[in-house]
Fold these 2 entries.
Entry 1:
Amino acid sequence: MAVRDRCLYCGSPVSTNGYCTKCRLSQDFLRKAINTSNHYYNMGLDKARVRDLSGAIDSLKASLRYNKSNINARNLLGLIYYEMGEVVPALNYWVVSVNMHPGKDNLAVRYLKELRDDPKTLENASQTAREFNMALEHAKNYSIDLALINLNKAISLNSNFIKAYLLMGLIYIGKNRRGMARKCLAKVMCLDRTNPTALHYLRELGESEENITRMADSADETAELFNYYGVEEEKENEGRPAKVITPRPEKGKRNQESVYKRYKGLNLARYSNIYMLAGIILGIVVSYFILIPSVRRSYYEKLKTSESSYLKEISSKNSEIESLNATVDSLKEKASNTDAAAVDLNNQITDLKDEISQLKKQVGDKADKNQPTDAENGTGQPTDAENGTEEKVDDVNDVVEEE
């Protein structure tokens, strides 16, 4: 098996059919995933340039879902969190980036080095987090004044801490101080043009969409942090700009750079509802044409198997009933035969009794004719002939009774 390339995922040799010999992943699939990750990174970069930080975070997280090794997306995501005043998530993304790619060309190395060389920044970040947590606890306990004091301290340490502004705006809304709440939320809109929480609070305050857009447009265009670290366009005597990643062309296919440039500026967020509706319709169609027939098929198969088992059981019971009926019929026949034999025997006994009674009558008549009475003999005793006859008759009676 010839080997011609290295796997984009694990670096193992790739066979001629385009699959890795170790992880068994298709290189076309990996290439598409990398291109999709780069596409979402470019979207996040464009949103970061117009200070749409919340949208940029969503796009960059989507980029990392498709390719966790996208160092540029990971570094930019940490930089956006740092801009929003959340230093700990930024450090997490930068540390992971350095561990995955420790080379000097990784911007996260420079970010961490500068933070390490400036311990005051880390100390301020830690103090800001403590003040915000204390303010949050005071707000939960309805200690509003103490919460505002802690929030002011947090904002004085980090003027871009969006969460502190949001909590302060919420407290002012609760105290019915709408003017102060609008100022806090306007600051949030200057830092993050599409912050969903700030937009929700402003709509609850009754602000029109025009006023909200005006607040977002009043943001300071000279973002010093982004200029310093290279998110804005390259200018004279300023830091290097962030790199725009173009899709990697596939081997054996035409270059699709022109098509990519044509659709690069397309904002897909506005079509999210259409995509969701199309996904629902597709799911219904798939369930109707694929899932439901398979469920029906399995149900009918189970029904057939249960029906066949019931039929077998019924046939066995019927055969058992037939054998029992045959046994009952044979027993009834034996009983009828026994009854007929008993009737015959009773008839024979009756005939024998009739014959015996006739014989007794005949014997008695003959005895009366032939033998003298006791008066004729002079004695009151019967003669020997009579005694012998009576003994014979008794013997015949005994025989009949025995039968």
Entry 2:
Amino acid sequence: MEWKKNDDIQLHIEAMTSEGAAVGRCDGVAVFVRGAVPGDDITAHIIKVSKRYCIAVIKEIIQPSPSRIVSDCPVSERCGGCSLRNMTYAEELRYKQQRVLDAVTRIGHLTVPVKPVIGAERIDGYRNKAQYPVMMKNGELQAGFYAYKSHRIIPVSGCKLQHRAFEECLDVFKDWAKKAKITAYDEQTGKGLLRHIYLRRAQATGEMMVCAVVNGTALPLQEELIEHLSALEGMKSICLNSNTQDSNVILGDKTVTLWGSDTIEDVLLGKRFAISPNAFYQVNHDQCERLYTIAADYAGLTGEETVVDIYCGAGTIGITMADKVKRLFGIELTPQAVENARKNAALNGITNAEFFCGDALEGARELEKRGIHADVVILDPPRKGCQPELFDVIQRMNPQRIVYVSCDSATLARDLAILAEKGYAAQEITPVDMFPRTPHVETVVLLSRSDINS
């Protein structure tokens, strides 16, 4: 049967996509329904029809899934953040394991054991970083998050994923914005001053960082804003980031410290880490420690290894392993993150680590020119995965093991297939739920040289 827009159909929800949308089939046609839960029987209202699929919304839940629960957030259906808040956590973990397995088998065409997801003990209030886009409404500053697949801001008060201290920061910004007659940045016109309110909090120390991202170089009533923010518990750093680009990138290239320190400090697995606004740092402290523990186990360190940590960020993975290796080399593109990595090594009295600023491929080639042989390579790339040419350099480095940490199952599966062609077979995959109540899942993989296992 050929479905049309505005048709109502009865649908049984069978599974979920990698983006967290539910999917069912009607007369062999896939129908995607955001907000449904596997096991639901619903009446779906079709809002879009294409040749191969339909998109629908829930008109009525005829029989709810045993895994369906009532969301405890009033805006979760509109906000693009907690799209899994209407299902049990057990079902969420099952979905995430299946998501990783599906990617590895369907995209990578590999048969590799995928262990059960390492679930989080805390599924609320776990995020140590928030980036709030802002808008003005009736003369009031409102902060929130983007609606699903849009840049339409959904105002959010008391987001359950964020630490409660973030709400206190937002209240200060709202009062200041009203007094200073602040304008919010408009993506359509390129006008307006305040673009984002960017917050970080170190869980182990309680230190806070606030960064105002502006379409300009200064803030009106700046001293008054600093006075009220600096009075908040744990406040360590207040920064101003200038971003005048016509783009969706949140942070611009220039950040100045208005008050306090340039960085905040956290502790991971007994190591101290200084974190700057631009440096990558995992958003979930407790799950990060579990992830890094698994990564160290997979690395199989004895104290005699040379480890190359590619996409090293502020050096967190490598530095947590540094006591168990002979030499550590880190490669990172962001200059500020490299500075952090060097500072972090010094903070922890680590003298066997060296960090390079550069593109992953360029940095790996530089190590190759220096004749560096790697026993273990750590890969923790951004969502787009690794540059294909990088694997040629890694192959020539001839490590015994590769530990691949990924935030995107699809690009991970693609890269695992390429590495298999280069002689590195995935041995085991462990997903870690770094982002509870969202569709995202972090994954760590052990790969070994095929000749070692033959």
